[in-house]
Structure formats: C-alpha cells, structure tokens
User: Which sequence fits this backbone?
C-alpha cells in the first residue's frame, strides 16, 4: 500500500475526523479552565482586598445593611449609585444599599449622558451613575461604560 492510497482511504479520513474532534474537545476544555481560573482569581483577590475596598474609611462598620448575617456580596460587573469620591482614575460609588464600589476609569472607558458622550472631567461627587465593567485583580471594577443618569425619585 503506498502513501497516496492510504491518504485517500476511509481509515485515514476517520483518523483525521477523530483528531479534529479531539482538538475541538481540548479547546473547549481549555476555555472552561481559563474562565474558571479567572472567576476563582477574582474571588480570591476580592477576599484579599475586601476591607480596603469596602470598609468605611471613617473606621465604622462595613458598608453593608444588617451586618455580617445580612451581607449582600457585590457583583463584579457593574455598579449603580451616587459618586462619593473622585480621585481619577478612581471613583467610589455608593449603591442604594450604601455598599461602596471602587471603579477604575481607563482611556477607553465610554462616558455618556443621555445620547451624548462626555469627558470624565464632567463627573462630579453626587452624580448618579450606572456602570458596566470588568473586575480586576484588586477587587475593583474597570469601567467600560459609565452612564450619567438622573437620581432616583426616592433619593
């Protein structure tokens, strides 16, 4: 049997299909490992930096309603609330439950007010914002989109 006949045979075709399926399965597995590692690293880093990011700077309790038994753990992908401090590129936002989140504004962060794009210099303490972003290794949120919004009626 020569090589040309082997390449054109059903056995060779079956081997190629099997290798293709194995490669696809390995890529899917590696993607799952990467996503899981990223989530686990964020959770670990959030724990390491928890007090620095969420403790009341005046030395009081954590910014959670109801103490340790009633803690609402923060989501890592966004924030809604009032700006309480600005030290660019960092902004601290207090949510409706008084949970403070630290945001990082990067050069590619889009800041919008209604339909208009605005600059980060227009953000002021007391503004109500809605933020979408990505968690980083320091337990902060790297803002991708910040939308300046009217304050809710109950504030």
Assistant:
């Amino acid at each position: 049997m020569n090589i040309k006949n082997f390449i054109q045979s059903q056995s060779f075709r079956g081997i190629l299909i099997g290798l293709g399926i194995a490669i696809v399965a390995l890529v899917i597995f590696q993607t799952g490992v990467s996503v899981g590692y990223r989530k686990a690293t964020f959770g670990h880093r959030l724990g390491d930096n928890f007090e620095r990011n969420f403790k009341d700077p005046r030395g009081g309790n954590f910014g959670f309603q109801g103490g340790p038994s009633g803690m609402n753990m923060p989501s890592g992908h966004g924030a809604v609330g009032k700006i309480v401090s600005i030290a660019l590129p960092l902004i601290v936002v207090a949510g409706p439950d008084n949970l403070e989140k630290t945001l990082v504004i990067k050069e590619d962060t889009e800041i919008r007010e209604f339909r208009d794009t605005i600059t980060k210099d227009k953000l002021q303490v007391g503004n109500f914002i809605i933020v979408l972003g990505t968690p980083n290794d320091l337990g902060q949120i790297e803002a991708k989109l910040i939308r300046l919004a009217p304050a809710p009626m109950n504030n």
User: Anything to note?
Assistant: The CA atoms of residues 32 and 135 lie 18 Å apart. Strands lie at 78-87, 90-94, 100-113, 116-117, 128-135, 141-149.
